[in-house]
Amino acid sequence: MPQQTKRFLAYLCPRCRQSVIVEKDLFALAAGPVRIQCPCGKSELKIDMMGPRVDLLVPCAFCGREHAVSCPSDAFLYRKALAFSCSASGLDCCYVGEEGPVYAATARLEQAVDKLDAQGEKGVFLDEIVMHEVLSELKDIAARGGISCACGSKQWSMRVNYSSVDLVCAQCGAQLRIPAATADDIDDICCKQTLRIRGRA
Fold first, then answer.
1. In the structure, what pLDDT confidence band is assigned to residue 144 with cuts at 50, 70 and 90?
2. How many structural domains comprise the chain?
3. Is the distance from CB of 201 to CB of 146 less than 8 angstroms?
4. Positive or negative CA dihedral for 131, 179, 56, 174?
5. Fewer Cβ close by (within 10 Å): the C or N end of the chain?
6. Among residues 119, 138, 164, which one ends one of the domains?
7. At a CB cut-off of 8 Å and minimum separation 6, what does 135 contact?
8. Domain extent at residue 19
9. Minimum mean pLDDT among 23-32, 40-49, 187-196: which range?
10. Are residues 100 and 137 in the same domain?
């Protein structure tokens, strides 16, 4: 497998509501704190690699605050795609990974934002029909015994958010977030026979 030397980083600017997607060299990321500014100049994503962990300060278009998040350096550098979410809305606010997955995830986030803006008044869920369909598919997968964790456990719980569902392993506490905001999210979950929560080391 070829060694990845680039990472794509994306976030949604809370001021101008435009997506900011930047390609960064791994060496530049490892060399020191990196700041990725929106062209409007009114927000920036901050990344700091601190040995085994990476700290990020992510501007959030949904709650208006900055989210301080962190992850293992190897996941940040080599995982196909990582998503960081707003705890208040359940919507993603930052993506890191390979070009294709990051662009695809950002396009879906833009759809969710358009839907949110069109709603005006906030309901229980971003889209009740999408949430109902995603929960129905999760119920079917669970009935087949298709939900498990990489740690070996088949015990889990479910947390329903505004625009996503979290599956939480009862044994190790690892989580898998299932988006439930757009029609594409229904298509994605319909294609899956099983779901595997990524266990904690």
1. very high
2. 2
3. no
4. positive
5. N
6. 119
7. 160, 165, 180
8. 6-119
9. 23-32
10. no
Q: How far apart are CA 176 and CA 158, in angstroms?
A: 10
Around Cβ 9, how many Cβ atoms within 10 Å?
A: 23
Supply 92's token pair: 């993603």
3-state helix/strand/coil string of the chain: CCCCCEEEEEEECCCCCCEEEEEEEHHHHHHCCEEEECCCCCCEEEEEEECCEEEEEEECCCCCCEEEEEEEHHHHHHCCEEEEECCCCCCEEEEEECHHHHHHHHHHHHHHHHHHHHHCCCCCCCCHHHHHHHHHHHHHHHHCCCEEECCCCCCEEEEECCCEEEEEECCCCCEEEEECCCHHHHHHHHCCCCEEECCCC
Q: What is the pTM of this model?
A: 0.69
